[in-house]
Amino acid sequence: MEMAYLLPLVVLPLSLSLIFFFRKRDSGDLKVPPGTSGWPMVGENITFALAGPQKFVKERMSKYSPEVFQTSLLGEKMAVFCGSQGNKFLFTNENKLLTSWWPQSMKKALLFPEFVENSLKEVSALKRSFLHDILKPEALKQYIPLMDSMAREHLETEWAPHGEVKVFPLSKKYTFALACRLFMSIVDPDHMARLADPFTLVTSGMFSVPIDLPGTAYNGAIKGGKIVRSELLKIIRDRKKELMENKETAGRDLLSRMLLVTDEDGQFMSEMEISNNIIEQMEIAKSKGPNELLSWEDIQKMKYSWNVACESLRMTPPAQGAFREAATEFTYAGFTIPKGWKTFWTVHTTHKNPKYFPNPEKFDPARFEGSGPTPYTFVPFGGGPRMCPGKEYARLEILVFMYNVVTKFKLEKSIPDEKIVFHASPIPMNGLPVRLQPHAK
After folding, report:
1. How many Cβ atoms from other residues are within 10 Å of residue 263's Cβ?
2. Quick one: which of 29, 68, 239, 252 is 20 to 30 A from 398 by CA?
3. d(CA 212, CA 116)
């Protein structure tokens, strides 16, 4: 009877050890990148979650290799490519040595079940070329007045009546509303909520460990994805004339990230930096009538504002990187990457690397003046054929919103040392409360 209880305790560790042994033997004869696969089955997922991506990557670049190291994340053997050369290699070898890959948790949350087992190339081939067309600057110019009017309305209703607001949830609400309006002509708040609530479940769990049990983030992402897909199908069927607008969005919480940025001493932007930003915006505002909306020409003048936005994206990037899959065995930096291994590039190997950005913890928009950073070092939108197609949309959204905020309010953080936690992207623990002081009219 006792053996019946003891047998599982013996067999389970033995089985895990055998799995781990054979997984190691698969590439044992090759000079693969240095690193560790972590625990059997679990890999380094827990370590990654506890340390956060920046610390996780920095420690392994120092311990194993500043060029490429191996790990195991999301149930996959993975080579993390580092530095500008690593980024360049991955970006320029798309569709040659590498092909796109999404974690299973992401595919199950975002895609219809019929497409989960398809290759990502099959799923996204049409979408990629089409999105690049509708999201290029020439196509987006027409939306600037609408973006401007929505930003004004949002600030008047959600900010102006209050002495203090929480920027993070409000900026998420605005970006989602703007995306719904621009891409699907949805203006009803209740309809937006039916999309926004389950969409939050998806974004919170689509990069989690794929354990589909009640209460897990992965389970929530799958349920949320099902609701979102159902709502989108209704929209598509009801509004076939607007099908061309029903595409993935690129909403970003840039204002939150900009306000979170501090230098190495915990200080925020200097009065001179803030003054530069406000002066530029006020100069544009002064040339406009009181009810005149922004134009494309106004956006083109906001060069310093875009430098500020870029420096915010460098220091607090919303996206962490992207995956690829080795389509064939190849060699990089003297190491062999076996066919089928997954690769990962991440902003955290360059954005705060003093090799590329001296004094990297200092907030300095001047880094983006002239020719700007060295190629492949500033990569918040990726690069190569897979560069985020929503880059220009995000740029317009950011600049229009910044313009309206800085011309209406002076902001002061209510919690100067607010802690930032990481849940797929950086999140201020208290929602980033700020005190508002309207500018004199």
Report:
1. 15
2. 239
3. 15
